[in-house]
Amino acid sequence: MNFTDLKIIPPILKAIQSEGYVTPTPIQEKALPVLFEGHDILASAQTGTGKTLAFAVPIIQAIYLSKIQNPVRKLHALVLAPTRELAEQIKDSFRNYSKDLGIRTEVIYGGVSQKPQEAAIYRGMDVMVATPGRLLDLMQQGFIKLFDIKYFVLDEADRMLDMGFINDVKKIVSFIPTPRQTMLFSATIPNEIMSLANSMLHNPVRIEVTPPETMIEKIEQSLYHVAKKDKTNLLIDLLVNPKMSSVLVFTRTKHGANKLVKELLSYGVKADAIHGNKSQNNRMRALADLKSRKLRVLVATDIAARGIDVDELSHVVNYELPEVPETYVHRIGRTGRAGFSGEAISFCMNEEMHLLKQIEKSIQTTIPKIKHPLYGIRDIMEVGPKKKNPQTPKNQKKESVKTNVVKEKKSYKELKEEKESLGSGFKRSELPKKKTEVIVEKQEDPKPAFKPSYPQSKSPFQNKFNKNDGGKKPSYQGSNKPAQSTYRQKKV
To answer: The CATH number of 214-383 is which of 3.20.20.150, 3.40.50.2000, 3.40.50.300, 3.30.1490.270?
Structure first.
């Protein structure tokens, strides 16, 4: 099936072909006819399957046909996305598919100044792509009204759940009028998402595309066992390969991403980081540099990488394995898109072996292991916690002590001699006499007595003087005056 076989009007079809798309993906082939008929849908589809086109084209076509009869610009469509990067990607897709149709699409999200977004709202728009937090803020300030919404899309609902946005989504949905056409897309459909779908959708059509286990078969996977201290060196050695032209590296933390970028830059590798602490402008610039090949390596955390869509991304590197098996599928799904080949390389240290087992169980595939001449399995085995060996010297020492105790209990005579030796404070066989004499001398060595600088025989008045003087020791050296006369002078 080609796009020409679907009910797409010529202007949009031309825009799709200009993007280089000829054959629809499975999600597009199943969703487009249903959405053209006006049904609600609940679709489970992974990132990179082309779901943005699947919901963007029907919305653009419906708005364009309605504007022919009523050209007044109103906010007719709302798309909610969990991250800023994904919101930007969706905005770009809407604008690309609606070229020369007079449809205006704007994006609203936090992390940037609110003033330009207020100006875009005053100018008017047909489609709004937004993240839940900033949209609620603008709604509470009275800048945005959702009275005219006819098409509502909730993209990556499972990620909304993971990031704690579900309550915000429910608040927003309560302001959207009914009837409307609702489209919910999610990689997985847990119970919470199913409950949300039941409250939002009206007689939805359930659409499921190729499961992730089958999709990742198109991606070449490999695994290196490597110690934590050697991960950076291994990554730099791999980057010697010119085929790794555009690489997305995943770390668990923002600090780890920044640290890795500094290491790569010190070796002359063009790299940058993208995570929550980066400003939106810096994140967008880094993503644009990766797409234009100005940047070779982009280090990202999982949440920040959500929405990254680079067609010719050559490699994905799991510098640290994810703690959730489904996240592994999301990560490596960034490569191998739009018919291009892709490779996914993972680093696994000894402490991450349990994560590796969970991932392989989830994808029902054993990831091929590659032995590196410098960073191999032997290195990782030395790094991990050592197993307790009953024959270690420490345990052998304990056993020998127990054996001696048994021998000492054999004879009453031996016990009596031991008691006598302990009573003396030391064993003669262990402490030589010379050492014992030195210890005794040190203990009996008295401290030198304090020698006063004045005569010993003093009157009671002198003691009184010392007390009145705050306890300070007077000095009479160099003075011929007696203590008593000095006291009398002070008294007078």
So the answer is: 3.40.50.300
Every domain of the chain with CATH number 3.40.50.300 lies at 3-210, 214-383
Structure tokens at 300: 């990202």
pLDDT tens, per residue, the chain with 492 residues: 788 888 899 999 999 988 888 889 889 999 999 999 999 999 987 767 789 999 999 999 999 999 888 888 999 999 999 988 889 989 999 999 998 899 999 999 988 889 999 999 999 999 999 999 999 999 999 999 999 999 999 998 988 887 788 899 999 999 999 899 999 998 878 888 899 999 999 999 999 886 554 556 678 899 999 999 899 999 999 998 888 888 999 998 889 999 999 999 998 899 998 887 877 778 878 888 888 888 899 998 877 666 566 667 889 999 999 888 878 887 887 776 655 668 899 999 999 999 999 999 888 888 999 887 777 544 333 334 444 454 545 444 444 444 343 443 435 555 556 555 555 444 434 444 444 344 444 444 555 555 555 554 444 444 444 444 444 444 444 444 444 444 444 444
Number of Cβ within 10 Å of residue 356's Cβ equals: 20
Rounded distance between C-alpha atoms, residue 432 and residue 358, angstroms: 63
Mutual orientation of helices 10-18 and 84-97 as an angle, nearest 10°?
A: 120
CB 483 within 8 A of CB 476: yes
What is the C-alpha to C-alpha distance for residues 18 and 299, in angstroms, rounded to an integer?
31
Task: Match 């993209």 to its residue by tokens.
Answer: 155
Residues 165, 158: Cα–Cα separation, whole Å = 10
DSSP letter at 352 equals: G
What are the backbone angles phi and psi of residue 379, rounded to the nearest 5°?
-60, -40
Runs of H (alpha helix) within 216-301: 231-238, 254-266, 280-291
Query: What tokens appear for 399 in the block?
Result: 């056993």
343: phi then psi, degrees, rounded to nearest 5:
-130, 145
d(CA 339, CA 218): 10
Phi, psi for residue 248 in degrees, rounded to 5 = -110, 115
205-208, strands of its sheet edge to edge: 105-108, 127-130, 77-80, 151-154, 181-186, 41-44, 205-208
Task: Reply yes or no on domain 3-210 having CATH 3.30.565.10.
Answer: no
Q: Which two tokens stand for residue 225?
A: 């066992």
